Design the sequence.
């Protein structure tokens, strides 16, 4: 546990340039593509105050159809452009993503429409 804490302290203390070098090494030598939202950089060049890049891409996840399953299927069909059969399969298979990689406003709009139809929805 002490090793993990020491590693975490080292990562938090990295400068922006060092974070970029680490990302390059992870990508070139290990094939790991670091997620932009997960990169923590020191806001003041390593002085201790860390900032996390703001998330700009969201996934809308249908957790459950609720009591009005037919209404939810219709909304999913309209929002995703899926056929009726595919929309029904998506709703029946909940929890499943309805849309992935959308901006925050669109994610909130989709959640509102699905919730209004009776679905249980979450944004990740």
Sequence:
């Amino acid at each position: 546990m002490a090793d993990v804490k020491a590693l975490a302290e080292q990562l938090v203390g990295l400068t922006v340039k060092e974070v970029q070098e680490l990302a390059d090494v992870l990508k070139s030598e290990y094939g790991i593509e670091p997620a932009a939202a997960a990169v923590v950089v020191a806001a003041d060049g390593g002085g201790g105050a860390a900032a996390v890049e703001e998330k700009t891409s969201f996934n809308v996840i249908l957790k459950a159809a609720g009591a009005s399953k037919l209404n939810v299927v219709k909304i999913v069909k309209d929002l995703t452009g899926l056929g009726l059969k595919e929309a029904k399969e998506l709703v029946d298979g909940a929890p499943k993503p309805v849309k992935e990689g959308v901006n925050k406003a669109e994610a909130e709009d989709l959640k509102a429409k699905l919730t209004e139809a009776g679905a249980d929805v979450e944004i990740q």
